[in-house]
Amino acid sequence: MTVGAAVVEIHVHGSQSLKAKRGVVRSILQRVRNRFNVSAAEVGGTDTWQRAQLGFTAAGSDAETIRKVLERVLVFVEDLHLAEVLSCDVELVEMPYAGSEELLDDPEAPDATEE
Fold first, then answer.
1. What percentage of residues in the chain have a pLDDT greater than 90?
2. Whole-Å CA distances, 99 to 4, 62, 106, 108
3. Does domain 2-105 have CATH number 3.30.499.10?
4. Mind spelling out the 3-state secondary structure of 30-80?
5. In what order do the strands lie in the sheet with 84-94?
6. What is the pLDDT of residue 115?
7. What is the pLDDT of residues 34-73, one digit of tens each?
8. Do residues 26 and 108 make contact, with C-beta atoms less than 8 angstroms apart?
9. What is the 8-class DSSP label of residue 20?
10. Are the C-beta atoms of 28 and 81 separated by less than 8 Å?
């Protein structure tokens, strides 16, 4: 299993309050959620008026597909023109997964039939 995470730092020009910035952030996050099958949240800069860090995550079996999805998310955020993208980064992590066959062959695993 591959887990991918992307972080985007944005600058909301003209924002004079947390309420105004959060409106822009909410709009970006909701549009990304509606368009892509990813999790999205504000992960940094929550107490600043004009800057925010947005985090996006996706999981799947193919690292290349996960990377492409997250890169498309980053392009989408930039193309919205709701805020200036200052920086972005994508990281992938390969998570080990023990298949069900391995679990059945494990002599140390508890047997569900024993009570």
1. 80
2. 21, 16, 11, 15
3. no
4. HHHHHHCCCEEEEEECCCCCCEEEEEEEEEECCHHHHHHHHHHHHHHHHHH
5. 39-44, 51-60, 2-11, 84-94
6. 45
7. 999 999 999 999 899 999 999 999 999 999 999 999 999 9
8. no
9. H
10. no
CA distance 50 to 109: 52
Q: What pTM, to 2 d.p., does this model score?
A: 0.81
24-32: which pairs have CB atoms within 8 A and are 24 or more residues apart?
A: 24/82, 24/83, 25/52, 25/54, 27/82, 28/54, 28/77, 28/80, 28/82, 28/83, 29/54, 31/76, 31/80, 32/56, 32/73, 32/76, 32/77
Q: Does the pLDDT of residue 109 top 60, yes or no?
A: no
